[in-house]
Amino acid sequence: MNELARKQIQDDYREILSSDAGKRVLGGIFYGGRLTTTGCLSDYLQGERSLASRIANTVYEVNPYGVADCLTAYEEFMKEYPNDERRDNTEPYDYDE
């Protein structure tokens, strides 16, 4: 990737990180991608984690505290909704609902 394109991507990430909504969306990606989990994962889940890690690395380039800020924003948002009123992408889908 050339330097001009890289700078534009970093500027785009800065813009996303400047809003609460952007932080919540990225935090959801990190959470859903199991960025903070440890242990063995299936190939599919490892692929999700790899994608979340790639996004997190770009966030880190822009703001060393950005990943933590995004995870915090997402966790605080999710506390506003009890489990029975929301569904996140880590819960298995119940086809009988």
Count of β-strands = 0
Query: How confident is the prediction overall: mean pLDDT?
Result: 88
Radius of gyration computed on alpha carbons: 15 Å
The share of residues in helices is 55-70%
Low-confidence regions: none
Strand content: under 5%
The sequence of SSEs as H and E is HHHH
The structural class is: mainly alpha
Specify the number of helices: 4
> What gross morphology would you assign?
flat
Biggest sheet architecture? none
End-to-end C-alpha gap: 46 Å
Q: What report would you give on this structure?
A:
By secondary structure, the chain is an all-alpha fold. It is built from four helices and no strands. It has helices at residues 3-17, 20-32, 43-62, 66-79. The chain is flat, with a radius of gyration of 15 Å.
